[in-house]
Amino acid sequence: MTASPNPHRRTSVRVLTLALAALCAAPALAATPVDASKISPEVTLKLIDLLVAKGVMTRQQADDMIAEATASAAARPAPAPALAAQPAYQTQPGAVVVPYIPEVVRQQIKDELRAEVTQQAKSEGWAAPNALPEWTQRINVYGDVRARAEDVLNDGENYTDFPNFGALNAGSGYDVNDPLNNPLPTVNTTKNRGRMRLRARLGVHAQIADWVEADLRLATGSDRSPVSTNQTLGAGGNLSKYSLWLDRAYIRLKPSDWLTADIGRATNPFWTSELLFDNDLSFDGVAIKTEFDTGGDFKPFVNLGAFPIFNTDFDFGSTQRLDKASSRDKWLYGAQLGANWTFSDDVNLRLGLGYFLFDKINGERSTPCVAPTSKDVCDTDLSRPQFQQFGNTMFAIRDIVPASGAPDGPQLQYFGYASEFGVANLHAALEIASFDPVKVVVEADVVKNLKYDASRIRALGPLNNFKPLRDPNDRTFIFDGGDMGYYINLLVGQPKIAKAWDWNASIGYKRLESDAVPDAFTDSDFHLGGTNSRGFILGGALGLARNTWLGLRWLSANEVSGAPYSVDVVQIDLNTEF
Question: Phi and psi for 299 in degrees, rounded to 5?
Answer without folding.
Answer: -125, 100
